[in-house]
Amino acid sequence: MSENRAHVNIEGVHYRPASEAETYFAAGAWLRMSVGDAVREAAHIQPGKTYLIAGGQKYTFAEFDRRTEILGAALLDAGFKPGDRAIFQMGSIAETLIALCACYKAGVVPVCTLPQYREIEIGQLAEMSGATGYFVQADFNASFNLTGFAQKMMQHAPSMKHLVVARGAAPTGSHSFETMVASRDFETARAQLASVKPGPEDVLTFQLSGGSTGVPKIIPRFHGEYLGQARAWAKQHQYSPDEIAIWPLPVIHNAAMLLIVLPALLMRTTIVLQDRFDLQMFLGAIEKYRVTYAGSIGPVAPRLLDFKDVRKHFDLSSLRMFVGMDRSDAIEAHIGVTTMNLYGITEGLLMTTSPDEPTLQRFTTNGWPSGPLDQVRVLDPESETQLPSGQEGELCFFGPHSVRAYYNAPGAINKISFTSDGYFRTGDIVRETIIDGKSYYTFLGRLKDNISRGNEKFAAEEVERLIVEHPAVLDAKVVAMPDRYLGERACAFIIPRPGAQTPDVPALGQFLAAQGLAKFKLPERIETVGEFPVTRVGKVDKMAMRKIVADKLTREALLSENRAS
């Protein structure tokens, strides 16, 4: 742990030395405030302006400040302490954002999971983070008792003591979100929180890496640096005071916070949250609320492109720009709105173009780093040699927002995650292109063995370890297969035991779910093989497997089209 000026030091977090932090503050890469400060400032300057629209609810900046202040004080009364961690299993609803900001004000650090996580993921993260709190949305899934699940998980995680339940009955010994928000007056809560006010160098949140080790990795992000990156994004995309942004995907994750939630807070603009993605609802909300800024990091863009004559059915004239992972040329032609690609990784890099840049840059690249001091290199993955412009290599970066070490991670994990001089290794393949003297980067693929299903990343190794526990399976490898809407799905190549029948997709899914694996990680196709393809040096060739399944999907699609015609 380095010398720092955080108010609360969390063991296992790598803090920046004071001299380095001051360099970032002076350059404006970090802001000299906490997220709680930003909420209070917005409420003071624009008290009556709408900040949050979600599920028919509307909150002005003043009302949002009041609710988060009261809940933050109530958390302290319930036994939470600054520096405590809390597991979050809540969807994209108003209560989630209120609970998150209440934690930020009280110095409690949210561990940003998904409501779809089950025993394996929550068990690992509770142990790794040392979480003492647990926030759940009781009505997230009518067919799954998330509150009961949280109670069960707390019995197996001795560190977790405080359960907060939103949108449902709070069991005996737990806390009701609604009761806590109504528990005291605003001024008393504000005075109480003043005694624990986090600073810009305190940990704000624990985000999760979608890496390839099979073990979850926790990324600490800090108040001042997170706000600085959000402001840089808003500047690059030219946020105006009249911006209205929409987000139909998980709000707790890095993308939502940096692209939508925090930029709107800093610029004092409006956000619209949707608790699930439905294309008709999404387009209807753009029309209804006169949304100006929209984006996609998952299934939004491909489903949008499938909607024929979309502009005849919905009024999208309020949109000034749309941002996605790729296919900006097709999206712009389809909806008639300025569109650009982005690249983002939770470990700390955001890249995009500005809306006024030419189509060459916007359509053919993922842009350039949004942060003023971000440093990017394209390296040979084996030698760490910097490659010349135009050559494909591994994207590596260093700067004010880049992780320096994963939280409480073994030394071996941190060692392989960084170059010898401290640049983070993304495992992503990019190409640098110089246009008019400026560097732009284009994402081409991945080195790492992981799968990105609707932009929820998970390690193939994690799923493989569980598949081989099936009594009919001798060995298994999991690879990504292309999917038009979700980007990728998981395909399992299975070598069955002699005389055994390979389980089909539903049977294997049932087996894996019973072991506590989240549903979105289940393989959605199975290929039975006698042996795995190997490289010339005898290693299992996953690239060949990905090509095999991709070619099969292409042939099956053509056959289906021929039958239909």
Number of helices: 19
Largest sheet: 5 strands, parallel
Distance between the termini: 65 Å
Indicate the proportion of strand residues.
15-25%
The CATH class label of the largest domain is Alpha Beta
Apparent shape: globular
**Helix fraction?**
25-40%
> How many strand segments?
25
Strand numbers in spatial order across the main sheet: 4-3-5-6-7
Name the CATH superfamily assignment of the largest domain: ANL, N-terminal domain
Q: Mean pLDDT, as a whole number?
A: 93
CATH fold-level assignment of the largest domain: Rossmann fold
Uncertain segments are none
Structure notes:
The chain is an alpha/beta fold. It has 19 helices and 25 strands. It has a 5-stranded parallel sheet with strand order 4-3-5-6-7, sandwiched between helices. Strands 12-13-14-15-16 form a 5-stranded mixed sheet, with helices on both faces. Helix 3 crosses helix 8 (186-193). The model has no long low-confidence stretch (mean pLDDT 93).
Summarize the structure.
The chain is of the alpha/beta class and 565 residues long.
What's the helix and strand layout?
Elements: H1 18-27, H2 35-45, E1 50-54, E2 57-60, H3 61-77, E3 85-89, H4 94-106, E4 109-112, H5 119-129, E5 133-137, H6 146-156, E6 162-166, E7 175-176, H7 177-181, H8 186-193, E8 203-208, E9 218-222, H9 223-236, E10 244-247, H10 254-267, E11 270-273, H11 279-289, E12 293-295, H12 300-306, H13 310-313, E13 321-324, H14 328-335, E14 339-345, E15 349-352, H15 359-364, E16 368-369, E17 375-379, E18 392-398, H16 411-417, E19 424-435, E20 438-446, E21 450-453, E22 456-459, H17 460-467, E23 473-483, E24 487-496, H18 505-514, E25 525-528, H19 542-564
Helix pairs in contact: 2-3, 2-4, 2-10, 3-4, 3-8, 9-10
